[in-house]
Amino acid sequence: MEATKLGVVSLILCSLLSRHVSKAYEVDLTVEINAGATECFWQRIKRQVSAELEYQVIDGGDLDIDFAIYDPSGRAILMESRKTENVIRVQTEVEGDYKFCFDNSFSRISPKVVFFELVADHDDDEEDDGDDWTVDMDEVKDMVDMTVEDLKGVIDRAKLNLDKSIQLQNLIKIHEARDRNIAEANFNRINNFSAFQLFIMVTVGLTQVLMIRSLFQEKSTSRAVFKQQT
């Protein structure tokens, strides 16, 4: 009996999860924007949909970039200048191809590496009222101690927590990548500066040794100059 109950619950969980997962579009990319260049990306989004975009500059220059969003008609919805990271939520008014642009034209030397993630809801199954289940609801209710509505609530909360966990893991990964790039850049800068200082110290030391040796040579120009001054 317990095995049958577990099988029914598993079937319900799989059905609910497959329905809910199909109602959101999510994409994440890491791209390199060359110096003086602009990169744009298009995504088709339905009307009256909540879309969330998160971006972060993880390497290059001062870790800043210009960003803009355009609706299908080409009208600018949002424009930002010299931002390192941001989370943007947009409520779409019309259906069509929305354009997301990262502009690095203000930089003439440094390319930028940008991570961004786009999450957009889409209700392709609006006509689905949830009643076309392949299992007998009365049988399910008799086998388990909760109703289908309770199971739906559990799945909704589980999916929400999983989505938050994935976004948090992506955010931690990107923060780690940015911090690693900063640490490596500082490491190279310190090494180069230390090598330059070592070169100066060695040069000064050799110059001092040669000057002191020249003072003890009979035909040395330095010794003649030194005697003249004394």
Automatic annotation (TrEMBL):
Cited SMART domains: EMP24_GP25L
InterPro entries, alphabetized: Emp24-like (IPR015720), GOLD_dom (IPR009038), GOLD_dom_sf (IPR036598)
Record keywords, A-Z: Membrane, Signal, Transmembrane, Transmembrane helix
Pfam families given in the database record: EMP24_GP25L
Every GOLD domain range: 38-120
Membrane topology listed for this record: Single-pass membrane protein; Single-pass type I membrane protein
Subcellular location(s) per record: Endomembrane system; Membrane
Range of residues in the leader sequence: 1-24
Principal cellular location given in the protein's record: membrane
Sequence intervals crossing the membrane: 195-216
A GO cellular component entry from the record: endomembrane system
Domain of life the protein comes from: Eukaryota
The family this protein is said to belong to: Belongs to the EMP24/GP25L family.
Name of the protein in its database record: GOLD domain-containing protein
Originating organism: Littorina saxatilis
Lineage, highest ranks first: Eukaryota, Metazoa, Spiralia, Lophotrochozoa, Mollusca
